[in-house]
């Protein structure tokens, strides 16, 4: 049940505390909860357990390792979206929900449908249900992208590319409606029409080049919206400059149904720092849409040289995690998440890789080493999001009127007494009064 806005009753007695600080006041609610039995009467002078289930801000990671773990025979360490080998994947699956409450699944077209007409969606559905059974929210990435796309599109005329691409959007979003709640609908559109890193032009690049960015984006978003009106639809990019700002402005002026802006921060060349991160968030927040940091990474090894322009161009033969780098990463990941969550426009953060095994570009970006052992950054982030920012299951006693106080971060909570329970959602900051009925 969600809070209603009323004056707080005087002398509300018991608190299940969460740490607060001025920068996070917009993320915290102080709710006086009246706990009622199934008959509607207040549950007076009773011991109940109050605990948080997940944050309102989607704090996630990529779920590629679980996809491979549940389909071990199909594991390809060099394939698109490849996760860790099964022996490490099992450990990563165990660790995932200790930190994250949201998972991004790999819907790369080239991996989903390498042969036209034979999509491999069952393995993604298995993984999606595995996460959903554990209360983890899901996002699909990506629906339209010029990279890791289906090779067979190259042979098709542009009209046919457009037709089958939109059919693919409708097929995947419809199949996963109610299971996958958010999608990176179009990924990296700024560079898409001029992408030239392949021997021959791929079909999606040609579609962007011949039709233009905004018409392609409009068509993809409208197809996704028709297929699942409840889904959160993102326009995602790594370009944090004026080119993406101009594209966002054009897309919104054209009335494209974008729900959120996705921003990437692969910090292979060093931590951005609070000032730069906040400046980026401020520039994109002015469009009035929620912001998701869809891909964020911090290294626990040597940094990529500053002169490298395209991160894909740096591929050392070995890129190990180091003790010095791990200490740096642990400090920086906490600073980064504090900065992101302090910004009122941010509604999602996705760390791009729980483990080093199978990490993008082979970089030591994971919170867990390639052998499955956690780095200091894992404990640091866990202690922040599931410690300082969390209401752990806490036994409290209601007063004579069935009241208790829940002082916690916005998100989903649960109240239990014996074998009865009730869900409680804190969905706005400040003081509130809430009634819950145990059933």
TrEMBL record:
Q: Which reaction does this chain catalyze?
A: Endohydrolysis of (1->4)-beta-D-xylosidic linkages in xylans
Name the protein family.
Answer: Belongs to the glycosyl hydrolase 10 (cellulase F) family.
PROSITE patterns to which the protein is assigned, alphabetical: GH10_2 (PS51760)
- Give one GO term, molecular function aspect: endo-1,4-beta-xylanase activity
Naturally occurring in which organism (per UniProt): Pseudokineococcus lusitanus
Compositional bias ranges of the Low complexity kind? 7-20
Q: Which residues form the GH10 domain?
A: 82-384
Q: Which InterPro entries match?
A: GH (IPR017853), GH10 (IPR044846), GH10_dom (IPR001000)
Q: Which GO terms describe its biological process?
A: xylan catabolic process
Instruction: Name the segments for region: Disordered.
Output: 1-20
Protein name as annotated: Beta-xylanase
UniProt keyword annotation of DNA-binding present: no
Q: Which PANTHER family did the record assign?
A: BETA-XYLANASE, GLYCOSYL HYDROLASE
> What EC number is given for this enzyme?
3.2.1.8
Q: Which Pfam families match?
A: Glyco_hydro_10
